[in-house]
Request: fold
Amino acid sequence: MSFYVYETQTIPNESARTCIKCGWGMDEGFLHEPSGSTYCSVACLDNDISLAQQEEMTLDDLFWTDWHNEVEVAE
Ligand SMILES: [Zn+2]
Reply:
């Protein structure tokens, strides 16, 4: 699976991404591709996107991924 890299925010630590709900630094988690929103857990995901909304999404829109290989990407 390929997807482009969001590098619009400053990353304050060594983690590749930060959960938009709780601010947890993470190297893997849920990605809502259309908005670029990232979530560390189902709890944070459900807190931001209702289950009804999730039901309507496809795996192209919302999926678990990791960014281990993208930490060094500069753009
Ligand atoms: Zn979180």
